[in-house]
Specification:
- With 144 residues, this protein is of the alpha/beta class.
- The protein contains 5 helices and 5 strands, in the order E-H-H-E-H-E-H-E-E-H.
- Helix 3 runs parallel beside helix 4.
Length: 144
């Protein structure tokens, strides 16, 4: 069974508490439970990691190079600021799908551009909790 990294960036540990009108009432645990229920049917196992620190996210992308077939990544605000994460995604050699809970293109102008999108296999945004499941289905199909 192929392994997929589910990577979450800054402030996502506060899901369910932080701006529920934008990000919903679900938690990171709710996300992992939903993905764990879907993953076996897609033929993938999941590895979860969350950090508020850019370097820790980069380290995890690197550490998983020989362990995973692909990743789904909600980089949060780092989408709009991190060339270092862009370089890490480009370097790892496995496909990464960028996802966002909110529709970044309908938000503040500074959130409407992703520095990471150009090195990701694809991007999904605006579907709340479903964004994670859509990204998982896409990466599972890509790594078959």
């Amino acid at each position: 069974m192929k392994k997929v990294l589910v990577l979450n960036g800054p402030n996502l540990n506060l899901l369910g508490k932080r701006e529920p009108n934008v990000y919903g009432n679900f938690s990171l645990s709710d996300i992992s439970l939903r993905l764990e229920s879907v993953a076996p049917g897609l033929g993938v196992e999941l590895e979860f990691f969350q950090s508020n620190h850019e370097g820790a996210l980069i380290d995890e992308l690197h550490a998983c190079m020989s362990l995973v077939a692909g990743a789904i990544f909600n980089p949060g605000a780092y989408s709009h600021t991190s060339i270092a994460l862009r370089d890490a995604i480009a370097a790892v050699g496995y496909p990464v799908i960028e996802l966002h809970i909110s529709n970044i293109f309908a938000r503040e102008p500074f959130r409407q551009h992703s520095l990471l999108a150009g090195v990701c296999k694809g991007s999904i945004s605006g579907f709340g909790l479903l964004s994670y499941e859509l990204a998982l289905r896409a990466i599972a199909d890509l790594v078959k």
